[in-house]
Amino acid sequence: MPRACAVLFLTLLLTGCATSVFNPATNKPMTKDTPPGMDAPLDLVSENAIAISFSGGGLRAAAFAHGVLTALKDTKTPQGTLADDVTFLTSVSGGSLASAYFGLNGPKGLEDFREKVLLRDFERDMHLSVLSPNNLLRILGGGLNARENFGDSLDKHVFNGATFADIYRHRKPDVRIHATELYAGIPFPFIPRAFSILCSDIRSYSVADAVVASMAVPLVFSPVVMRAYPDECNEPLPPLFERVNADPDAPRILKAAAQMAYYRDPKRVKYLKLVDGGVTDNLGLATIAVTRAILDTPYAPMTERDAVKVRRMIFIVVDASRGPGGEWALSEMGPGGVDLALAASDVSTNSSARFAADSFGTMVREWRESLVRFRCALSDEQVVQLGGPSKGWNCDDVKFLLAFLTIDRLEPEYRDKLNAIPTRLTLTPQQVDDAIEGGRRGALGLRRLQQYIRERVEPTSEATVPRP
Fold this sequence. Notes:
alpha/beta, lipid metabolism, globular, hydrolase
């Protein structure tokens, strides 16, 4: 410890010599040819839909998410598998590895995700030791690691240079990766509407850069930088922003979303600095609330046609965070130094996640109610025009289910195994397999998912559900 203190003291003296570590902005401006929706697919929802949020937690979270998706792929339905029902994926941090890969490769990509991603030693090319004077200088200069230490590996070996245009060509699912924007202190979703506020075109943006932003734990990684292009705009700001700013009683989530208007003011924001989405919401739920706020429709993020077609949707909130831990709880002394900082960070992250989970249930109920009001206000002619039935239309026939999958709800064997897996970017094969199997078993044991399966299957058919 004296050696570490001496190193830290020396580094503080050398602050003026700190190594500058940053990620240059790579997002491109809009042009006059940029389409309003930036080619993002629309009308994705059918009669049955599954929406999933994947939490952070390093490779443990990615493997846990992979187990959930594998369970869905292994569950047969009359039309295919439950993986085909996955329509919306929202994610943060480590969960974004799984959601982005699934968005680019679909259910078929589940076959090689373990070998190609989960077993990769991402930490091999990363700066990790805080006892190294050079690394301490890097921390003071912006962060231990920049794109060349992690993002380049993701881009080359995992996503093969893919951009959001590549995700959109696959149409389904709608993938919403979530980071934290530091200036306004708000969730930033990688979606066309958010990019249009920046006056930037998401189609050419690297999927790897979005995932790195979602995973950019402060100090461990330097922030991912994006540039605002207020002089390149061909879309107005959402009308909601002006209404919210004029209303002192507007909900706080709307107030937060309206701060995106700062991106059009070059005197306040020229560059966005994005870090780990877990700083604002480690469950990846905030991006849905922000999306609903900036789109400002009763059915967002669905379209009108989606709103007419959907009959049942299940939201599965997948939380791969670990339970309480720390040997310092067994002694009078401690925690100290790094353990204290990490413990305080975990408390803050978990507290915001609990609040997000509680408020999400309310948002889902309100979403369903506003969607039904929209449906019931349609004329028969409008229903048919939007793809609904000409006969037997029931505007109230919409069911939203909500399920939470957490490590602490697993059977004791897998709960203990997953709680022992660290939040890192390199794991052993056994740790990876334990996390995958925990996610698979946990998903198959969800009561609400079993209800969804029963209700989506025609009366004369049966779904084939694999045993946990």
